[in-house]
Design a protein that fits this description.
CATH class of the largest domain: Alpha Beta
Helix content: 40-55%
Number of strands: 9
Radius of gyration: 19 Å
Structural class: alpha/beta
Shape: globular
Strand content: 15-25%
Number of domains: 2
CATH superfamily of the largest domain: 2-enoyl-CoA Hydratase, Chain A, domain 1
Strand order of the largest sheet: 1-2-3-4-6-9
CATH architecture of the largest domain: Alpha-Beta Complex
Distance between the termini: 31 Å
């Protein structure tokens, strides 16, 4: 039974992966493991069309549990590094579209977690950053994904300086996709997620795998494209498109 992480179903097809460790939602090893386990369960649930990742109304996550880091020996850090890195990347492995709904702060490992989502929506009072360098450390899971998202030069600036970014700069960099009023963060995420309910789940998952393939995306796209011809959704989609144009298909997720 998870202590800090829950998965709720507010409406058909939508899952909310929520972590709550008041007051600042700091991510320690236990929270990371619970997040990874929940992400794995969600990815296997074909009744879920889209996923919202949420802290709470006040704060998404203020980052790493520094007190825990301070206790680790080099041997302990090496022993947990692989599992912790995988956990912080866990959102990127979910086959359904994911959106991080961010209030207050997304710092350190909290921002690394959010970088794994397909979309990031923040309140217009949010601060983001990767301040690990100020502790004599580096981000464990976020450097490569950040570089792909905003470019290597901008990523180096954020990682090397450890500085915070306000909503205006975050949007200009492409670090976030939408900035809304603080009280509207969850509602905006829910609105984005709803568009995938009843959608072509197999094709969406295939598209995510192609994006994840990076430099091998062209090769992966060929394989995924051909495999989709075996699905019911492809038959439904092409026939509906021929008869009624785009947007009329009723997909079944198979």
């Amino acid at each position: 039974m998870a202590e800090f992480v829950t998965v709720d179903r507010p409406e058909a097809g939508i899952a909310v992966l929520r972590f709550a460790r008041p007051p600042m939602n700091l991510i320690d090893l236990q929270v990371a493991r619970e997040l990874a386990e929940a992400a794995e369960r969600i990815g296997c649930d074909h009744g879920i069309a889209a996923v919202i990742v949420y802290g709470d109304e006040r704060v998404f996550s203020a980052g790493d549990e520094v007190a825990e880091l301070d206790r680790w020996t080099p041997q302990q850090a090496e022993a947990v590094a692989d599992g912790l890195q995988s956990a912080l990347r866990g959102l990127s492995l979910i086959s359904q579209p994911t959106v991080a709904a961010i209030s207050g702060y997304a710092l350190g490992s909290g921002l690394e977690l959010a970088l794994g989502a397909d979309r990031r929506i923040i309140g217009d009072n949010v601060k983001l950053g990767l301040p690990q360098i100020r502790m004599g450390l580096i981000p464990l899971a976020g450097i490569h994904r950040l570089s792909l998202l905003i470019g290597e030069a901008a990523a180096k600036d954020l990682v090397f300086s450890g500085r915070f970014v306000d909503p205006k700069e975050a949007a200009a960099l492409g670090l976030v996709d939408e900035v809304v009023a603080p009280d509207d963060v969850y509602t905006a995420a829910l609105r984005w997620a709803r568009q995938f309910v009843g959608g072509p789940a197999r094709a969406l998952a295939a598209a995510k795998r192609v994006f994840a393939a990076g430099g091998h995306g062209s090769e992966r796209a060929r394989a995924e494209w051909a495999a989709l011809f075996e699905t019911e959704d492809r038959s439904i989609g092409t026939r509906s498109y021929l008869a009624d144009g785009p947007g009329a298909a009723e997909f079944v997720g198979r």
